[in-house]
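Supplementary Methods S3. Complex input for the NAP-bound model.
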Amino acid sequence: MDVPEMMKAQVFYEPEQMTLEEKAVPEIGPEQVLVKVHATGICGSDVAYYFGKSSVGTDSGKGPLVLGHELSGIVAKVGDIAAEKGGFAVGDPVVVNPVQSDVDSPWTQKGLSNVDLGTVVGVSVDGGFAEYCASHWYWTVKVPQDMNLDIAASAEPLACGLYAVKNLNIEAGQFVTIFGPGPIGIMMVQMAKVYGAGKVLLVGTRDERLDVGKELGADLIANTRDPESPNYVEDLGQFIQDNNDGELSDRTILATSNLGAIKSGVDTAGKASTVVIFGLPGDDDVHSVSGIECMLKDMTIRYSWLAPDTWPEAVDLLHSGKVRVEPIQSYSFALEELGDSLRKVKDREGNAIKPLMKN
Ligand SMILES: NC(=O)c1ccc[n+]([C@@H]2O[C@H](COP(=O)([O-])OP(=O)(O)OC[C@H]3O[C@@H](n4cnc5c(N)ncnc54)[C@H](OP(=O)(O)O)[C@@H]3O)[C@@H](O)[C@H]2O)c1
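Predicted complex, serialized as structure tokens:
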């Protein structure tokens, strides 16, 4: 594949300052591959960086940095070690696991690279809102030749959501409640079904997002914010008991960082339940729960961080169509239009859930 010397990239400098630039195509080291970016999804953290709600992971906490960590593409160049150890070749369709921890770290070797973060593509080094992106071979995942690369671009959020669903330990037929109808919560609805859930309830604050969750398999939806909504539920615990033979929720995931949702999630989880907290807490967030309430329910509460070992399965869920992301991907846009799409996601304009930048 012919690789040009220069490429287009959106370079973020500081909040709301990002420019489309001609930039040198990344040089790769022997352990890296160069990926010709096909598509890159917008994550909530890209929005947070762009609007200054959170600092990027560079030493200065600022740019210049190419954002974007949810990407698919085609291998355009291969380092010697990447070819030898990873068997990579030019033309391979791939997705990039952006969390590129030290391969030799004891945590990585134990399958827990998520607790020993190193380089993160699109967060601490240049990412996917560009025409090319470099990636360590160990963290680059080959996808089937016939895989639709638009769909593959959602592998990263799906892999994180899958780890959380696995951490729920769903038993067949159980009632599962998912708070937060964002892209990941809606993917979790589908994965909970794959993992044997009986009824799945999706709880949120906007009907347009809840409706997408329903289209993709939620048995029940509840809007807890808008009394005018036909899906409005005032007493969520009662609603769950009415739909679960008098019991509260068996398994609950918080796919939102909203503190009220976390309290409600714990309050509406039942006997011998498991609650997984997935929404990313703010620096000052404190999660308080009633100890006696959790104790008497013999409840398990756990956190779920990133996707240490779920990538191949996530790719398979997408490739097989067991998890559908087209209705979540909302629309596609060109690299030039990134700033506008980041704003649309922030403002929830046009029900922009997970728009896709396509080169
Ligand atoms: N743990 C991990 O490994 C990991 C990885 C990736 C992302 N995350 C985090 O996981 C969360 C979900 O990601 P996402 O991309 O799907 O986020 P998202 O697009 O922000 O979706 C969150 C959804 O939750 C809704 N929400 C807000 N308050 C709620 C409440 N009280 N009850 C129910 N729903 C409520 C939001 O509604 P509005 O539209 O009204 O705001 C929004 O629709 C985020 O916090 C993200 O930072 C965690």
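The longest strand covers residues 32-41. DSSP finds twelve helices and 17 strands in the chain.
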